[in-house]
């Protein structure tokens, strides 16, 4: 008998653990989907305009609001007699979901365009004066600037170069050329025009003429020259005679610069003010509440013709040296 023992071989079978399932795959797929949606949202926010984002927001808030003709009804289903809930576009939102501009925004935009138009006209006028051989010698008598009422163009007298004949409303040849040239520029400007005449403080001796009448007649003479230059007749909204109530040189009421013609290309706000003043003038509303047009000292103003001096204003006794 063999003393050697046979080796005993023990075979151990390692059993694997049970199947865990596929739940982790679902969770991972959800995570990947969420990340994709997040980056898609970030891309949309970075590549769209505010108006487009507002339209998308409106669509997801109220999808039926963009239904066109033949689409869904503009009312929800009736529920027990309750009032229908409108789902169409509201007053604040136009079709497609883009916000509709309100009246104040439209007014601001109109005022901005109006100001831009006047600024362009100012540049063109100043450029024309610099380039014109006929106007450049009188550059120091032409003052152009923007005011709250619009673009103001002033033609002022010089001591030895008056615009009008002494004490009369007859234009000197050079002043006639200047006004006709300005009328050419105003031909294509849609804004209304206000024309103002002013005199110095020198008074007339006789009682048939006064600085009130003279200033108004000179404003009317300027109007005729502007029309002769090409400005339409119906463009004038206001013709004003100020006499010597609004002095250019307040320290010297008799200075030549106080004799001047002011042409204002009115902005829309000033146009509305003049229009309201016309309504008061024809008795449309109580005169007590009438606003004063274009300044508190626009005495003797009128929108359609030459004005007369107000009652109580007398022409002084001194003989005129210049007017």
Automatic annotation (TrEMBL):
InterPro entries: Bact_OuterMem_StrucFunc, MotB-like_N_dom, OmpA-like, OmpA-like_sf. It holds the Pfam family MotB_plug. Gene3D superfamilies: OmpA-like domain. It is found in: Cell membrane. GO terms for cellular component: plasma membrane. PANTHER family: LIPOPROTEIN YIAD-RELATED, STATOR ELEMENT OF FLAGELLAR MOTOR COMPLEX. This is OmpA-like domain-containing protein. It comes from Acidihalobacter ferrooxydans.
